[in-house]
Amino acid sequence: MKIFVVLRVALRAMRRNKLRTFLTMLGMIIGVGAVIVTVSLGNGAKAQVEKQIASLGENVIMIYSGSFTRGGARSGWNFAATLTVEDSLAIEREIPDVTVISPELRNGSQVASGYDNWSTTILGEGPDYLQIRQWPLSEGAMFTELDVRSASKVAVIGKTVADQLYPDGNCIGQVLRIRNVPFIVVGTLVPKGLTAFGQDQDDVVIVPYTSSMKRLFGASNIRAIMAQAASLKSMNSVQEQITDLLRQRHKITPGHDDDFTVRNQQEIAEAANSASQTMRLLLAGVACVSLLVGGIGIMNIMLVSVTERTREIGIRMAVGAHGRDILMQFLTEAVALSALGGALGIASGLGGSQLLATHMNWPTLTPTAWIAGAFVFSALVGIFFGFYPAWKASKLDPIDALRYE
What we know:
This protein is 56% helix and 18% strand. It is an alpha+beta fold.
């Protein structure tokens, strides 16, 4: 029961100076609120990246052209078409843990139907592309291996292209002109939404890679290859085997740079997360500084409170209060200030996260453990920064305290 008496006295002291109490808690409110918003944004962005990376498919390994040195100039991904269809066939043939594979060409082009025209991305792919991406069809069918061999003029379109060019919803069997070449729409895709980098995955037209090479863009090489490993455990092994095989096929000697780049989903996820990691650390640093300032503010106000209430402390000691009672009283006030500030900070942080999600469409996700952790941490800040003022109050001499004016 004694603890409730101490708490009641502490709350009475806080109500006595409402404005000062609020200003003291403000540092904790800002600090904890900033922590909650930072964690919410960080976890939301991470979850979105993981979702988008997962939308690439399962156990996917990407091989890109580029990353080579020529004439003293170094290039990055997709700078030059250094891969060939034969490379793709060799990977499928010689690496047992590669289940399916798809050569890829990517180009932008204007497409047109009888209704309208639209600028979109043209993907030249193999018939197993949708299996690799785990991308189901909403209507129609995927083109076949026979279509690839004969470079057939058939296409599968994404939801965005379908909506723009065929607003009546009747897509299958319609003519789609790509660079003035007529293609027949044989399928439409289930919507996938935006990528982690804000690109619309549904704004795409997929054609056989041979049709893209021969009928549309006159390419002899390809810029990428998508492969699917048999299992998650085999991905690193498959990645190393692909690298070794391509180095051998491209006659790259030891000590020379590869003219291709091999990446898996995990590496792409790490690259996407690293872009926002710096900002998350910066925001976390600001939040920690705010918590530190809030703790210092609590210590400062508690020291002022000890000075102002010196005579009150002397009277309490004179009527029988012990040093530990005074210590408990002031420590309880400090913890109450800090915990109440932490609770208000959590509420403001959750509210701020919700506003960002609603009005700015930023993904937010706040784990319950972080909410509980923020409250406990704010209470610990009160104990840490409130202990010295409380200890100082408990060590006052009763006679000197009664004489204090």
